[in-house]
Design brief:
Decomposes hydrogen peroxide into water and oxygen; serves to protect cells from the toxic effects of hydrogen peroxide. The protein is α+β, with helices and mostly antiparallel strands and 743 residues long. The protein folds into 3 domains: 60-205 and 216-393, Beta Barrel (Catalase HpII,  Chain A, domain 1), CATH 2.40.180; 460-560, Hemocyanin, N-terminal domain (Up-down Bundle), CATH 1.20.1370; 575-740, Class I glutamine amidotransferase (GATase) domain (Rossmann fold, 3-Layer(aba) Sandwich). The protein contains 20 helices and 23 strands. Helix 5 packs across helix 13 and helix 16 packs across helix 20. The structure holds CIS-heme D hydroxychlorin gamma-spirolactone (HDD). CIS-heme D hydroxychlorin gamma-spirolactone is lined by residues 84-87, 90, 124, 126, 143, 145, 158-160, 165, 170, 173, 233-234, 315, 348-350, 366, 369-370, 373-374, 377-378.
């Protein structure tokens, strides 16, 4: 008895310690380090020669008894496992989460109580549609899945970088995935929604309208995984120790702000560096630029379940931040790259059903269906339900149950008892009371008739799509129209294009429908429809007005816009190229480079060839990248130092001129000093900018995100202006005439 009491105390949730290193220490038991070791077989036998198979004579047949050959070949033959049916391409990182203050009033989840505690996490970012080898920068939703290894077991927040979903009921998920994936007859196109079947489906499914707007916006081409928001999408439930529940929406807010690529750049990157986002994440962590995200929550008291003009169980709706503000409750820092892609990033298995006490589900029919799908698909990937024993998936707390056996079982369960109740095993493993950390489901009252029907409160499909459109900046609107010109422009069926314009887009906005029609060979709609909408109670009102009953309304939501609300003014980890050749000004290069690096930017010297180039002052610098291996698309900003000889050479290099044209076209900041300005004027943007007038010379001049300095050594002022231009990220809107610039 006394022995068991001791054991109980040791096993108590209160005394279970988890810290930042708990997961790493656990993984250490499984790591293999080949350093200074002999090559062996799987059986541990040392190998004397691995370059030749065992043969009967050096030109004779290979012998069956060559165990080393057989084993080596067998492993290769079985190295692949089925890729995820969606979210196949992903990138993972380890880190930790820390809550800012106790959330005990809302939830009893232990990892959300103590600000001094660091809970280990593993995050996997992904694209959705493409296969494992597809490009990172395609237009797509990004998955943002987080596994918290808490002292009460694993909690998975399996979200996306878009706060709503295409469909309302999980039973439509197979149709959605079939429509958006490559067509079944010809397996085309790869990693793209721009084909007939997807837009056919979308045009017939008005509930996709809101999510479509997000997917067509800049959100679907993030500049970096570190610069995008994450969302839990569904309304979940928090439950405190008193058993009181409240509704919650989860958000991840990146501390670097939200930033995107432009479409032309995204497409080119898909060819020049298909690993763009993966590389960016990896390199940031390797160089200590740890990605940081704050966890935010929108709280909805249980009594307000029906207070909105939409249904909070409908995953195609968000709750405008202007109605319910996001409270930032903690921070996640990603600080360690995986050791092995397959063992960790590929084998990690997330599941929205992995919850801990204090976090519970709601009746959102999309969420309910997800609760079935994830384990089901993981059994397809791993051919066994024992995938939970794979190191990356193990909780950092002990697992005791009677679910033994099955393919590849690792755990050796002791004793003859594998059932419950039992007396022969002392009644163990035993049940935990709520106080002992036992999971108790929220006692929500549910009643209803069995019925295959959609709730009436899910009926309004367009109001929030309109709110999104109305909340965009002018530039963002323009890019949504261009995205539709691309996506629908690839649709061969005119019938589908017409239906998209009339049945979907015109219900979102007449302005949008008209602008899109023009680019895709379809007549503009003759009348505006859908500017009014019926709410759940049958009242007719203006669309895109979101109200808490009796409360304030939202007709414009800047929180939805990247341009208007979500940028940061830091240049930390921004990539800047310095274009130079022999005969550059070293003093200019050094001054600008040092100023940028002090602010956390990454600076690379780009020239025609690798090797060294010599400055006018005689210093030699190592070239970081040659033109053939890089391009403007791999940088956030460009700088051209003076130095007559260098600039004269660059003027004759199509590659250098192309970098400037393209960076200009993509809205990127460009800096130039003294003769460097001549290179700008020699490029196609010479027609678009005027550069400093005579009296403005000697101090930096900023025009359309181009920062120049002439006849002056005042680099400090130049650097300040250039850094400010980079902090604004893009200068697209002020470069309207860029259509003239080839790139
Ligand atoms: Fe899902 C993977 C996110 C709806 C079925 N989903 C998957 C991943 C993410 C999401 C991030 C990749 C996890 C990883 O990195 O391994 N899924 C979402 C979000 C949704 C959503 C935010 C809407 C709110 N998903 C959804 C529905 C279903 C699924 C409605 C089916 C009923 N999702 C799956 C899946 C996947 C998956 C088929 C494929 C690979 C996997 O689960 O492990 O089960």
């Amino acid at each position: 008895m006394a022995k068991n009491e001791n054991k109980d105390q040791k096993n108590s949730i209160e005394t279970t310690r988890v810290d930042e290193n708990s997961k790493n220490q656990q993984l250490e038991n499984f790591r293999e380090d080949p350093n200074e070791q002999y090559l062996t077989t799987d059986q541990g036998v040392r190998i004397s020669r691995t370059d030749d198979s065992l043969k009967a004579g050096s030109r004779g047949p290979t012998l069956m008894e060559d165990f080393h050959f057989r084993e080596k070949m067998t492993h290769l033959d079985h190295e692949s496992i089925p890729e995820r049916v969606v979210h196949a391409r992903g990138s993972g990182a380890h880190g930790y989460f820390q809550v800012y203050e106790s959330m005990a009033d809302l939830t009893k989840a232990k990892f959300l109580q103590d600000p001094s505690q660091k809970t280990p996490v593993f995050v996997r970012f992904s694209t959705v549609v493409g296969s494992r080898g597809s490009a990172d920068t395609v237009r797509d939703v990004r998955g943002f899945a987080t596994k918290f290894y808490t002292q009460e077991g694993n909690y998975d927040l399996v979200g996306n970088n878009i706060p709503v979903f295409f469909i309302q009921d999980a039973i439509k998920f197979p149709d959605l995935v079939h429509a958006i994936k490559p067509q079944p007859d010809k397996e085309m196109p790869q990693a793209s929604a721009a084909h007939d079947t997807f837009w056919d489906f979308a045009s017939l499914m008005p509930e996709t309208a809101h999510m479509l707007m997000w997917v067509l916006s800049d959100r679907a081409i993030p500049r970096s995984f570190r610069m995008m928001e994450g969302f839990g999408v569904h309304t979940f439930r928090l439950v405190n120790a008193q058993g009181e529940g409240s509704f919650v929406k989860f958000h991840w807010k990146p501390l670097l702000g939200v930033h995107s690529l432009v479409w032309d750049e995204a497409q080119k990157l898909a060819g020049k560096d298909p690993d763009w986002l993966r590389r960016d994440l990896w390199e940031a962590i390797e160089t200590g630029e740890y990605p940081e995200f704050e966890l935010g929550i929108q709280m909805i008291p249980e009594g307000d379940e029906h207070a909105f003009a939409f249904d909070i169980l409908d995953a195609t709706k968000l709750i405008p931040e202007e109605l319910v503000p996001v409270r930032r409750i903690g921070k996640m820092t990603l600080n360690r790259n995986p050791d092995n892609f397959f063992a960790e990033t590929e084998q990690v298995a997330f599941h929205p059903g992995n919850v801990v006490p204090g976090i519970d589900f709601t009746n959102d029919p999309l969420l309910q269906g997800r609760l079935f799908s994830y384990v089901d698909t993981q059994i397809n990937r791993f051919h066994s339900s024992n995938f939970t024993e794979v190191p990356i998936n193990r909780p950092v707390v002990p697992v005791h149950n009677q679910q033994g056996a099955g393919f590849m079982r690792q755990t050796i369960n002791k004793g003859k008892v594998n059932y419950f109740p039992n007396s022969l095993g002392g009644g163990y493993p035993k049940m935990a009371s709520e106080q002992e950390g036992g999971y108790v489901h929220y006692t929500e009252k549910v009643e209803g008739h069995k019925i295959r029907e959609r709730s009436k409160s899910f009926k309004d499909h367009f109001s929030q799509a309109t709110l999104f459109w109305k909340s965009m900046s002018a530039g963002e609107k323009k890019r949504i129209v261009q995205a539709l010109h691309f996506e629908l422009g690839k649709v061969e069926s005119k019938e589908v294009r017409i239906r998209m314009v009339n049945e979907i887009l015109n219900h979102i906005s007449y302005e949008l429908a008209t602008m899109v029609a023009q680019g895709i060979g379809v007549d503009a709609p003759s009348i505006a429809v859908g500017s009014k909408v019926k709410d759940v109670a049958g009242t007719i009102k203006d669309k895109a007005v979101h109200a808490l009953s009796g409360g304030k309304t939202v007709e414009d939501s800047p929180a939805l816009s990247i341009d208007r609300n979500n940028k940061s003014n830091s240049i930390k980890s921004r990539k800047v190229a310095i274009l130079a050749d022999n005969g550059f000004s070293n003093i200019e290069v050094m001054s600008v480079k040092q100023a940028l690096q002090t602010q956390g930017a990454k600076v690379s010297l780009v020239s025609m060839f690798k090797g060294k180039i010599k400055s006018t002052e005689g210093e030699e610098l190592e070239v970081d990248k040659s033109h053939i291996t890089t391009g403007s698309i791999m940088f956030d900003a460009i700088f051209i130092p003076g130095g007559k000889e260098s600039v004269e050479k660059l003027k004759k290099q199509g590659e250098a001129l192309h970098v400037i044209n393209e960076a200009y076209k993509h809205g990127k900041p460009i800096g130039a000093i003294n003769e460097g300005i001549e290179l700008l004027m020699a490029s196609s943007i010479g027609q678009a900018i005027t550069i400093a007038s005579a009296e403005e010379k000697r101090k930096p001049v900023v025009e359309k995100g181009i920062v120049t300095l002439q006849n002056s050594q005042d680099f400090t002022a130049f650097n300040e202006a250039f850094i400010q231009a980079i902090a604004q990220h893009r200068h697209i809107v002020v470069r309207e005439e860029r259509a003239m610039v080839p790139a």
